[in-house]
Amino acid sequence: MDLRCEGCAGCCVDWRPLDPAAAGSDRTGPRPPLDDAYDLVPLTRDEVAGFVEDGLGDALVPRLFEPSERDDSVRVDGVDLAAATGRPVFVVGLRKPPKPVAPIGTDDPRWLDTCAFLDPTTLQCRIHDSDRYPDTCASYPGHNLELGAETECERVEAAGGGDRLLDDEPPDDLPAPAFGPQALGATVFAYPDPDALDGVVARLRDGEATADDRARFAGAAVGSRPGSLSVDRDRMTEARARARAADSWVGAAIREWTERATVSGDPVDATAEPLAELVRDVEDGAGAPGTPGWD
């Protein structure tokens, strides 16, 4: 694939507040997610484990689903959840806090929900060249092209963002799709203790999840066995504890951005502090890895 990503970040930012008519939706399949995060990146079990081991468990967030018509389901906090043998199914992705960004040709920074690892100044991923860069991001938009589905690149082009998708041939080495038949225990997990989720599901639905809420799902994902519903309890408990204890630059930046943000889509008050200085204070100062910039 040949993409022009400079100045875009269309796949990293929720740009529905900028152009609701042009922005698409990542709601694929018959199971609506419980949350409203846009373009959540589903991680593999090994990727979740890698983030947890690196002390970046505070960058992770779970996603649960409402059941489709023929799904098994379980009811928690008054919410019907898609389930497998009575266990809520979920994926784990990267958190999207509000950040001051100016993507896809906007003139001034706006408060938009943005991937935790996107540098608002350069609009580049801070982990792009690292072992933590997710397969889903590395292969995007290959699966869309393979299925003939619209890509964020094309949505950006339609919104006046210039040429982005320069080559529409999917690569030959695409990884397995995140929601394919091989996904159980690999990218789609089943939480083993639904009775322990009282209160947790309501907080996830309302966008008020705690660090412990998020950590319990990260732990269950790490403890899962690919191809099955079984969970290694010791591995789950250890990973949950490590995820809960995480106090990385990502978590610190998310707290600071959330504190500063106003309504989604609102302009950022650049007179108070220029964007570059603001990002240095909030992310770089907390230890965020740099980006190379655009050639």
Summarize the SSE layout with pairings.
Blueprint: E1 2-3, H1 45-53, E2 60-64, E3 72-76, E4 79-84, E5 87-94, E6 98-101, E7 110-113, E8 118-119, E9 124-125, H2 135-139, H3 142-147, H4 152-158, E10 165-167, E11 189-190, H5 200-205, H6 211-223, H7 233-245, H8 249-260, H9 275-282
Overview of this protein structure:
The strands form 4 sheets. Strands 2, 3, 4, 5 and 11 form a 5-stranded antiparallel beta sheet that branches. Strands 1-10 form a two-stranded antiparallel ribbon. The mean pLDDT is 90. The relative contact order is 0.20. It has 295 residues and is α+β, with helices and mostly antiparallel strands. The protein has one domain (2-286). The protein is built from 9 helices and 11 strands. Strand 6 (98-101) and strand 7 (110-113) form a beta hairpin.
